[in-house]
Amino acid sequence: xxxxxxxxxxxxxxxxxxxxxxxxxxxxxxxxxxxxxxxxxxxxxxxxxxxxxxxxxxxxxxxxxxxxxxxxxxxxxxxxxxxxxxxxxxxxxxxxxxxxxxxxxxxxxxxxxxxxxxxxxxxxxxxxxxxxxxxxxxxxxxxxxxxxxxxxxxxxxxxxxxxxxxxxxxxxxxxxxxxxxxxxxxxxxxxxxxxxxxxxxxxxxxxxxxxxxxxxxxxxxxxxxxxxxxxxxxxxxxxxxxxxxxxxxxxxxxxxxxxxx
Amino acid sequence: xxxxxxxxxxxxxxxxxxxxxxxxxxxxxxxxxxxxxxxxxxxxxxxxxxxxxxxxxxxxxxxxxxxxxxxxxxxxxxxxxxxxxxxxxxxxxxxxxxxxxxxxxxxxxxxxxxxxxxxxxxxxxxxxxxx
Lengths: 261, 131
Ligand SMILES: Nc1ncnc2c1ncn2[C@@H]1O[C@H](COP(=O)(O)OP(=O)(O)OP(=O)(O)O)[C@@H](O)[C@H]1O
Ligand SMILES: [Mg+2]
Prior knowledge:
The complex is a heterodimer of chains A (about 260) and B (about 130).
Chain A: E1 4-9, H1 17-30, E2 35-39, H2 47-50, H3 61-65, E3 76-77, E4 84-87, H4 100-111, E5 116-120, H5 127-133, E6 138-143, H6 147-161, E7 168-176, H7 178-183, H8 189-196, E8 199-205, H9 209-216, H10 222-235, H11 249-256
Parallel strand pairs in A: 1-5, 1-6, 2-4, 2-5, 6-7, 7-8
Antiparallel strand pairs in A: 3-4
Helix pairs in contact in A: 1-10, 4-5
Chain B: H1 2-8, H2 17-32, H3 38-55, E1 64-70, E2 73-81, E3 95-102, E4 123-124
Antiparallel strand pairs in B: 1-2, 2-3, 3-4
The structure holds adenosine-5'-triphosphate (ATP) and magnesium ion.
């Protein structure tokens, strides 16, 4: 088996990389894929919390790199999905403990027995981002429909295009508020795709279920859960039509007739 | 009534903040994607025009030269009408058109100097057919 290494990144902080990594990992696991999620945000460990695995951590990524444990020992099995694992970031170490070469070698080993290796990148374009990018076969750019988020995404895309190996780049528009788009006060998905000129793979609405589910360390349900399931299916090659992004006619009629399910 | 339909379809006469955001972003992305500052780009445009003026008489009012982003690449696109050879004839003086691909910005990187090296010289694209 040779798995796909997919790095989730955004440039700007707080756009939803960790939320996306966690929910996509769980969505892929529900599709019976073998998945490892790696938290590459060294020093700012968070993916464990969002996935509900914070109490099970013994070893972390830096322990593997510094050979205090075997790779296998740092892989925490998810409580609900037997084929989903997390490799947590180190909380008390500096990001310079990890190098692009380390990440490549870990990813290479994981590829042998997993379908997907998802890497949660830290914000920015510095050391931690480069570590997260180094082993990537594919990148998912998470952006919010908001000027600084789009601008930073563009910068990241430019950097990836200049990477030494070709990487497939696709876009997730996160935290879309279709009522604001309709009112003309938020960039539409079409606007964002048009400006960034890269392929879209998913649209995730802004929804309070995200807060609730990360409070509890479980997968988001409702429209957000559906959005991540759709992204997971598209990653697996299924042709899933895009959700209504701009509250087109259908959405408006539904609201008009009070059928807001 | 028309107003109501417009509202229903999400149309309106005032520019909405998203539209302004898009325009501002499009502008900033062009310069972000370029290795040159907006200042330098303007200077280069002016110098190119000066060179052309040495060889042709330009119809100054008609000059259309701008930086455009297409599929994440920046191009300097110019359409420069020439002055009529004979002011009394109906024939126009022809025009000069070109598209210059300008190199994109690369990451000024401390860790992998060797990996990203772009050719600093601009590649000239073939002339678009001029009308
Ligand atoms: N679709 C969404 N709807 C509502 N809230 C969201 C959504 N996506 C993310 N959030 C919230 O936004 C915040 C930031 O999300 P997250 O931690 O995933 O971002 P990040 O890109 O990983 O941040 P950092 O750059 O700090 O690593 C969180 O509070 C999260 O709950
Ligand atoms: Mg994060």
